[in-house]
Specification:
Helix content is 37%, strand content 13%. The protein has 310 residues and is of the alpha+beta class. It has 2 domains: 22-250, Protein Transport Mog1p, Chain A (3-Layer(aba) Sandwich); 265-309, no CATH class. Residues 1-57 are annotated as: Disordered.
Length: 310
């Protein structure tokens, strides 16, 4: 007799799975950022050869810290925590890592990391600050900071990321840099962001409760200890990073240009009414948002109108 299972595929045997991959991928991002993110994966895996433990796929994880939950955090936070997987970090140091993640999302970078990764970084326009390629690239290495006062104080040197049109001569490098100081006062962390000398511009400060954002319990993965990250992100952006970035950008006396972005929706129809179809096509080529608005307006515009016939 022949065994009927001998010639049939084994459907009961489970397919092996693993959470450790040799070359972490970050999904597909539209346009040039998709190719850039693929290049990021190849370059980082080729440079260090270290496997990364990715808990979530990109489509399941939030883009930035503001939308994180106790069970789902951005990939760049997972990457930086992976660098400290075998290290014992205090609650204060974990909060410091969260502060640095918000700094990355706000267009800042630790100065030594900038020097090491400068050739790979993408330009960041003055009108924005978040570039997913830069954030994920810079989060794949340890954060460079200094401990002071018997581990009750921390400091790091930051600088802002700019686009290619901004000058970066050595004589004005200090205008791009700032010092982040964090001092522990019991369960509180006083955080100050100050310009470097010889700048006479003011600095910015805020106070954080460590226990409010980092639970004093042992949980795995570590990010399950984090709470209220939306509140933390908003406070740091509004009180530290956005004011400092705006202050440093204004020190270059940039030329301001008008923009159609950020207007109330009802104003677009009033503006587009004065444009003919050729002009609307030009507006549509600026970006996806204006492309959508202009196409929707052309569909609503009466075909017998004078501007439609022009």
């Amino acid at each position: 007799m022949t065994d009927p299972k001998a010639n049939s595929p084994n459907i009961d045997e489970p397919t092996p799975t693993t959470s450790v991959i040799d070359q972490p991928t970050v999904g597909v991002i539209e346009g040039a950022d998709g190719a850039a993110d693929d290049r990021l994966d190849r370059e980082t895996s080729a440079s260090d050869g270290k496997p990364l433990e990715v808990v979530e796929k990109e489509e399941d994880s939030p883009l930035c810290l503001e939308y994180a939950t106790p069970t789902s955090v951005p990939l760049h936070l997972q990457y930086v925590l992976q660098e400290y997987k075998n290290s014992k970090l205090s609650n204060a140091e974990l909060l410091l890592l969260l502060i640095y993640m918000v700094a990355l999302e706000s267009g800042f970078v630790e100065n030594q990391s900038f020097v090491e990764k400068r050739a790979l970084l993408k330009p960041v326009p003055s009108v924005g600050c978040f570039h997913v390629y830069n954030v994920r690239l810079l989060s794949r290495e340890r954060v460079h900071y200094t401990k002071d006062f018997e581990d009750t104080g921390f400091r790091m040197l930051l600088r802002i990321l700019l686009d290619n049109s901004c000058p970066e001569e050595p004589a004005i490098t200090h205008k791009l840099q700032s010092r982040l100081f964090a001092v522990l006062l019991g369960d509180l962390m006083m955080v100050t962001l100050s310009p470097v000398a010889p700048s006479k511009e003011p600095g910015f400060s805020t106070c954080l409760s460590i226990g409010r954002y980092v639970l004093n319990v042992q949980l795995e993965p570590i990010y399950q200890r984090f709470r209220k990250l939306d509140e933390l992100s908003l406070q740091l952006r509004q009180q530290l990073f956005q004011p400092m970035r705006a202050q440093q950008l204004l020190s270059f006396k940039p030329h301001l240009h008008p923009s159609l972005l950020g207007l109330p929706l009802e104003l677009y129809d009033k503006i587009f009414t004065h444009l003919n179809n050729n002009q609307l096509n030009i507006v549509a080529n600026v970006n996806k948002q204006l492309h959508k608005y202009s196409n929707e307006f052309k569909e609503r515009r009466p075909q017998g109108s004078l501007m439609y016939l022009v």
